[in-house]
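ugh finaly. both done.
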Amino acid sequence: MQPLAHRLKDQLKARNQMLTAAFSEHKKKPEALLDDLCHSVDVALIELWHAMQLPGEASLIGVGGYGRGELFPYSDIDVLILLPSAPDQTLRVKLESLVQQLWDLGLEVGHSIRTIDECLSESEADITVQTSLLEARLICGGRKLFRSLREQYNAAMNPQAFFQAKILELRQRHVRYEDTSYSLEPNCKESPGGLRDLQVILWISKAAGLGNSWSELAARGLITGAEARQLRRIERAFKDIRIRLHILAKRREDRLVFDMQAPIAETFGFTATATRRSSEYLMQRYYWAAKVVTQLNTILLQNIEAQLFVSASQPHAINEDFNEINGFIEPRDQLLFEHRPSAILEVFLMLSRHPELKGMSAPTMRALWHARFKVDARFRRDPVNHALFLQILQEPQGITHALRGMNQMSILGRYIPSFRHIIGQMQHDLFHVYTVDQHILMVVRNLRRFTMPEHAHEYPFCSQLIANFGQHWILYLAALFHDIAKGRNGDHSILGVADAQRFCRAHHISKELTELVTFLVEHHLLMSQVAQKQDLSDPDVISGFARLVKDERHLTALYLLTVSDIRGTSPKVWNAWKGKLLEDLYHLTLRALGGEIPSPDRELKNRQAEALKNLRLYGLPENAHEEFWKQLDVVYFLRNDASDIAWQTRALCDRVNSSSPVVRCRTAPVGEGLQIAVYIQDQPDLFARICSYFDGKGFSILDAKIHTTHHGYALDTFVISASAFSKSYRDIISLVEHELTDVLSRANDLPAPSKGRLSRLSRNFPITPTIDLRPDERGNYYLLTVTANDR
């Protein structure tokens, strides 16, 4: 038997290589390749099955994708060995040998050995098993037993229960992929809008007896002929991408990871231009296709649901143009959008005003999709439409859903043409994990959440500020335009101002509000840069920032937009340390705007007084701080919070002239992580030596402050992130204090920096390192900015 398995393995490998080579040379279409690969495995399995001399009534059945007749180059082979009754010991040994032979063929096999009763029992308990049996295909063996399985399976099928289970499964899968097809590394099979969404439709329709293909669904009236052709084209394109992923990766790979995007794009003939990478053209096409799948998927599911769950619900009037039926909005006249295009925006306004509605009915979505071309230059000039769009932004609820729905139905990009250019636009930078359009809508969502009482616990200060900020909608408008000019060969902040001005002028927005919008668009990155890259203890920094923002309203608007923008780039970018820096800058600037002239002397006295209060809580003698504080200058007190000063004073007041290093750690006062203070006689390369230790431990430094005392001691403090911590804080604190003290006690040479692991993004879309060195405003110091691949 072993020589047979080896011969079949060699034959199978040679044939599959020939087939994939023919595909790569554009001599074979995706469907043909999938069918031929499936047939190759069929031939090998049939020969092996007969060689094993298994009982004649037993059946070898393909299930899942293999049962469907589609086999991707490195996909699993799912088979069911169906028996008329439980196997005896002799048959069990034969079956174990068969399964081993299947693995010896070099196949990734998923197998099960069951009787019909066991199949039906497993199917009832597990929707995955029920789905795989839906596509069961006899490969060889007893036809009678297979037919009996099909008959009993079909008799047990409950289409309504199957529909509900698959919808739940679909929603859970979408949540796993953050409910978006616009992530920068989508899974072409599992992500929303991918191949799996198309398969769910066909599974449900097949279980309900409504059809096995797009053309059969069109014949049933569930979709139009044009929609069926569109779905067929997209399905073929996604299969094509998935095949190429498998071939290039030489393994099962369904994610369009950064490593694969450029090579895949080149196989399709996309080439880079002066402004865009080849991968960006591929991914934008992918996102547009995924969006269409999501739209048609929603329409089809509603139509199938209407067939399966007959409802006698009568329509109820919402207004003179729209009805509610079964919880969905539907125009009274199906040609409403054609006859009166303003209704295109009205339907989204109605959805915002009626949160009890589940969404649009399938006929409404179809009518809206076909009427999207009505949103043209004439539509954009109509004052009625201007008023409707601004009303949507000013609604007390449903704004994010309305904008996302408009984007999904290709209305938003037609109403704001510059928005259309950034739909599916990739962002290859250090922070963003979403396409530009999805990032923008995420920022709007974040701003909206500040206004909602149920989310007030997330960012209480932001919720407090926005509650006292009149005309919230102007912030949403600024968010829509803040990144709208990305990818245009220029400073997107400046280019976006022109787009925002045009929009505000066309919509007759007052000069005051227009100025606020354009200010936010032009300076949306400023507050983050000042907070994270400049010294907030420098009065000139605060005064300069206050002059730019002009007043409290501009400051509050910029703060709210900045927090929402950072949080909308990636779930991992925001942290409590950034939040504290921004909030500190806000309060310092607000005081400056209120007329308070920054006074280092007054601030020094305030910090020292507050630090002394904290010291009393530690139970130290009244004058315990004096010797230590004599060695510190004004800058130290201005750059450290009172709580930090008290903590460091407590740790060092009896070690002022210590001959050995002092390292003290505690949990960071703000957010997660550790705060570390190092006190040692100053020496060359000290800062590099400390950072080298953190680097070797895999700790990320969020904040560092360097200070030198009057008597030549270095007092350096750090905040390091907790992302790499696998132990308890107590253990980490003990470890760092012991190890770092030991490192600093030994005057060894600096170790070489660790190479680290570059992310896929950094490897495939590297950022050219830049170093910027310039004097500060007063010419006393130099400001050094380093930008590299991962920082």
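ok and the 2nd:
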Amino acid sequence: MASLPDRYMTPSIRITDRNGHLLYEILPEVGGRNTVLSVENIPQCLKDATIAVEDKNFYTNPGIDITGILRALWINLRGGETLAGGSTITQQVARNLLMSQDERIERTLRRKLREAMLASQMTQKLSKEEILALYLNQINYGGMAYGVEAASQTYFGKPANELLLPECALIAGLPQAPGVYNPFTNPDLAKQRQIIVLGLMEKQGYISHDKRVEAEMTPISYNPAPYPIEAPHFIWIIKDQIDKMISEGTLSSHQSLIVRTTLDVDTQHLAEETLKRHIEEFKKVNDAISHNVNNAALVVIDPQDGEILALVGSADYFDESIDGALDMATSPRQTGSAFKPLIYALALDPTRLNTWTPATSILDVSTTFITHDGTPYTPINYDSREHGPVSVREALGSSLNIPAVKTLQEVGIENTINLAHRLGITSLSDAGGYDLSLALGGGQISLLQLSTAYAALANKGYYTGNTSILDIHDADGNLLYTQAGNPALQIFDPRVAWLISDILSDDSARSIGFGPNSTLKLDRTAAVKTGTTTNFHDNWTIGYTPDLLVGVWVGNSGYEAMHNVTGLTGAAPIWHEVMRKLLQGQPDHPFERPTGLTQVEVCNLSGLLPTTACQHTYKEWFIAGTEPAQTDSYYQQVWIDPLTNSITDDLTPIDRRKSITVLDLPIEAESWARLQGLPLLIDYSQALENASVRQNQLALLSPPPNTTYRIDPNFEASAQQLQIEVAAGQGISQIEIWMDGSILTTLSSSPYQTWWSLSAGEHRIWAQAVNSNGEMLKSDVITITVINK
């Protein structure tokens, strides 16, 4: 008897959604479904039906069928084979739990006598109710169901304590021949067996004649999905957590576990259907070149507590052609521009020494950066255009690449990686492994981890991580484990979180990159960011309200490139539809603005306080104490002589004086401004003394430093030329461009550009000029290399 618990079936583990809907049942390696109930939680009709059909004298016999044993002895003495059958419930329990598999199937007198002996001992050690509970919890009911709870869930899709009389009778009749009476495969035989059980129940006084007839006439509805697997990628996440808790001793593998997860099955179904349909629509597009979009992943999170409401790891878990079993929601991939909000959040941190604001001006003009290994890096915007001075709001909202790299350079790679680690992003290694391309998604992060990081922005700057299990009970409803919730850590200043959310929900701020009223705009306040990798392997859209976050990845599991698909056209439509449907019928919930923010009118190019010359202003939000104190210097109002196109002086006749507004931009932006046809102060001579002119500035704009060029022998040598461009401040003229110690050319008017025919070797280039004070100026020296192909 002491070994009895070791013979119990290993219980299966039931995994449900947050509302109790069965998602999956993890079966033991040996056996099948099994959930152990206390005898009090087993319905009386099932006990009565079982006793009626299996052992009518159960409560009065000594645990053995004496008549049956004598019959077996008589047959044995006459040389016949000992037949099975006729065993009491106690004998069946003894046979199934205390005998080996080989001994169990013997048809000998010895086996029958040993069974009777074990049953007799069991009767002395256990009460009748305990023996009945063992039978009802361990017997095979077919369909991989062991025990009445597993049988009830398998055949009727509900717990045993909800069974009605017709269902009790059907289940009680199964153990005699589970394969024969299985209602899924032999419904007619199962019905006939049920009628026999009901007849025995009436005969033995458990039910009345009317109850029997009513039960026989009652139609039975069977479980349409007896072996479900919902949200399979999510299920394996749960299984890993359960395995860990069992190995740590938090849970016991001998307990019947019911794991209630955070998943909402209706949200899961919506996400799966939407994602799969959009992927199929990509395949139906009748273009000359296939978009080659075969897979996607999606997560839905409650940003306030990190609960995962849906997780779709692929378009089809069972489709091997797309590696559907691979969970793309948890697989690290390059994020493209979806990583940018974290960088800008660092720049806006008011505790930083040189804190930025949403109005801070960034020059979106071609810029070459030198990485830590000395390699030149020249990012380009998605539209391959430059946009001149842009605000942080426009740069982030429109996902401009050049300003993002400048922002990363400002806040530092190490600080950025540290922030990512604090937000639970474990896939990024030490800062030394990255360069400025990290701003454009050069690091690999999973959709789940990046979405969880975004949730901190939606949750007023508080990071909670993500959770997937709400609680775990045993089969009798006793609480074994509950998710206490991760402590909320304040990662972002709430004002920074609000500013980032305000920018990402500003449709006008993203108009440069996406145009007005794009797929990113909902009928309510929602912050959203897309991402597309430069090789078109991945595209992303992650967006949120204060109550809901949806993250979407679209691509191919095997890293095959997509064609003409971006975050806006690939992931965004899926995000838009899921968000819209989940929020349907709910009121708009704008992001709650925290205290400590002020709104100030600023000039649109510089982000500084307006002057009378500033032609365009707008109102911007600032963290208190970061408001601009300086006035704008980009816009300058000057008087010119239209006849000479120069600044007027005292000798200029009054009737030839005309007031105009010009721009005094940094020299790096001058080429961009001229292409836009904007008037520049530097293009007019004799600047006013009170004009904010730049003195002593001389910069070599191109070529980029440390760049290698190749001479192609298949082309005319004279056609292979390199443009050299110089930017000069006010009061500088007669610019000399030097190469390898000799003057290449002299330029006397803007734009200061020349062309040089390539020649093999390493070359050093710089510019020299004399300012209005007669001082010699020299630019930085850059080195380039030219090789033969």
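summary for the 2nd one i guess: The radius of gyration is 39 Å.
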